[in-house]
Amino acid sequence: MQRMLKAVHAKFLALASCAIAVAAVTTAAPVHAAFPDKPVKIVVPFAPGGGTDLVARTMGIAMGQELGQPVIIDNKPGAGTIIGTDAVAKSPADGYTLVMATVAHVVNPSLQSKLPYNYEKGFAPVMLVGVSPNVLVVRADSPFKSVRDVIAAAKAHPGKLSFASQGAGTSAHLAGELFKNLTKTDITHIPYRGAGPAITDLLGGQVDIMFATAAAVGTFVESGKLRALAVTTATRSTTPALAKVPTIAESGVPGYVADSWYGLYAPAGTPPDVIARLNAAAKKAVQTEAFRKRVESEGLVINGGSPEEFDRYAKGEEARWRKVVKENRITTD
User: Fold this and answer.
1) Most buried one in 174, 181, 314, 321, CB count within 10 A?
2) Are 192 and 275 contained in the same domain?
């Protein structure tokens, strides 16, 4: 009888141990297992209406369908993307707040002595969306028909010509500063809080030229409201709308190259499984016909790689632009 009681007792202890183990596993399950269970926000550090805004909104629709939650676009312009980027750096690391970054993200550390966030440790890469050319554009009634016309006018009237950008440190700003340095011209930089207001003033004649992203000015070039003089990439664009547009390098400025790109970051410390979920949703979003049709016609070469690939690309860009900024003495004024 005693032997039987001992066996029953041992069996009871074994069952209890199993129950405790199961409970422990259940309790240890991450709180973000159901991610996402509420809307996800993508901060666009520019005013509405520009290329970054367009890419984020087009992507957001498809990402929301994949995630099963709405993706909200939150425009936070100002300080050459620093205001919006800082807001994301200081957000909870739970995957619900992202930033649609551009080349300004990796250039600001070279242009600014102090940033309100830690560039190297403040963010977790999610995905490089794509790379595109900037386009040197003028309004339809501009007297400038070529890059050489712009250079001639700038040399004849130092400081009189102006170029718009979507903010200090952005691809449009750097493209213009590099142009000034390589052509040895004096052209006044006019920064805006996004490509939308910059293009509005370009169309209105308040500024003379703009090195705008292809995504921001594609429809204006196609409609004839803006004239594309050149692209900033090393080779001509394969996009039908820009295929006949020469590069700045072949238009009399040898060695000129200034690409533009878009990529998603989350705050540092975001759990790896949440990053993986966001990356998978972003990949599917950029592969949808709606996204491809909207952005590829405007020069964006879609990437859609892994977080690690994006991290390597961004670090390479940071090093490249740091050298350009230093050698060409580019400042944010």
Assistant:
1) 174
2) no
pLDDT digits (tens, 9 = 90+) for 151-187: 999 999 999 999 999 888 888 999 999 999 999 999 9
CA 65 to chain centre: 21
> Which two three-digit tokens encode residue 244?
């006949």
Given 226, 259, 292, which residue is the final one in a domain?
Answer: 259
What is the spatial distance between Cα 313 and Cα 300, in angstroms, rounded to a whole number? 16
Task: Output the CA angle 326-332-333, nearest 5 degrees.
Answer: 115
Q: pLDDT tens, 229-256?
A: 999 998 998 877 788 999 999 999 999 9
Please give the structure tokens belonging to residue 60. Answer: 């957001």
24, containing H or E segment:
helix 2-28
Pair (250, 280) in one structural domain: no
Expressed as residue numbers, the domain containing 178 is 133-259
Residues 109 and 148 in one domain: no
The reply to whether 264 and 125 lie within a common domain is yes
Report the CATH number that the domain containing residue 290 is assigned in CATH: 3.40.190.150
212: closest CA among 278, 299, 123, 326? Answer: 299
Q: Are residues 254 and 138 in the same domain?
A: yes
Other Cβ atoms less than 10 A from the Cβ of 201: the count is 15
Domains: count for the chain? 2
List, for residues 91-131, the tens digit of each pLDDT value.
999 999 999 999 999 999 998 878 999 999 999 999 999 99
* Residue 2 belongs to a domain: no
The DSSP-derived string for 249-304 is GGGT-TT---EEEEEEEEETT--HHHHHHHHHHHHHHHTSHHHHHHHHTTT-EE--
Same domain? 191 vs 207: yes
Q: Is residue 62 part of a domain?
A: yes
Q: What angle do CA 225, 229, 232 make, to 5 degrees?
A: 120
The CA distances from residue 259 to 41, 178, 256, 323, in Å, are 27, 12, 10, 15
> 188 φ, ψ to 5°?
-80, 130
pTM of the model: 0.79
